# Entry
Amino acid sequence: MASKVTIADVARYANVSRQTVSNVLNSPEVVKEETRQRVLDAVEALGYRVSAAARQMRTGRSRLLAVRIETTQDGMNVFDRFLHGLTESAARSGYRVLLYTAADDRAEIDTIDQLLGEFEPDGFVLTSTHHGDPRAAWLAGRGLPFVSFGRPWGAPEGVHPWVDVDGASGTETATRHLLDAGHRRIGFIGWEPGSGVGDDRRAGWERTLAAHGLDAGLVLETDGSSAQGQAAARELVERGATALVCVSDSVALGALQVVPDVVGFDDTPVAAAVGLTSVSQPLTEAAARCVELLTSRLSDRPAATHVLLTPSLVIRKEPRS
# Structure
């Protein structure tokens, strides 16, 4: 039987010190990319396998980042790309992603508490933040490292690290796109009031119309479903709307059954399939920045407190004037 490959074997093969190999395996962020890749190539060539249990005993770190799987609506889940990007970015930094589900905030807090006892994640990524979010307060109160994909709505800006997409900028671009085509009666279909994300997206539409001296009264709130999007579109068209900006692709999919000039938000695969113009969130970049902020905190390295990314408009059909 062949002898077991050791960390010393990897060091000799890569022509580096054993400490460098250890850093690559346990704290890859402190190693230069060229050296890190050389060590990883040696690990693969020699078939070296790291014992996660032994590493956790040695370093006190699990190298796990935990995040909740979001639910879908009308078969659409905009977080799939985010999770994929998060997993890839975490792996490049020497971490694995631990996924979990929870029905609501209280259930998520209970699940996090359970995960801490069973798997000891090093940090957490919160998603779908909202006003008065108890999850952030719970984690912060216990000094647990975390970052949120979503702003701390209603809380001080520097209360914890966060990454978000500028929804108002996205709907502003969408509204200008319809204005440039000649539309002047542009409606907005949003979510029920009080949603930080939804209110932010509505604000971009409102301020763009205001800048052009146009009425921002053609607005209706929904539960976010395609069915309610269709009903809201029908009512807004009856009130004179000739084009619509929607808070999500799910809502836009329903609105598209009523009026041809609709812009969605999230640029889901469904939007691409039906030819819907939609605001695209840079989810891969958002995931990478979440990992960067969280791993920087775990390594006591200085990092930004928050990152606000700009979305882009994916035009699939030119609107009619």
Q: What stands out?
A: The chain has a mean pLDDT of 90. Residues 167-281 form a domain with the Rossmann fold fold (CATH 3.40.50.2300). The chain has three domains: 7-50, 64-165+283-309, 167-281. The first strand starts at residue 64 and ends at 68.
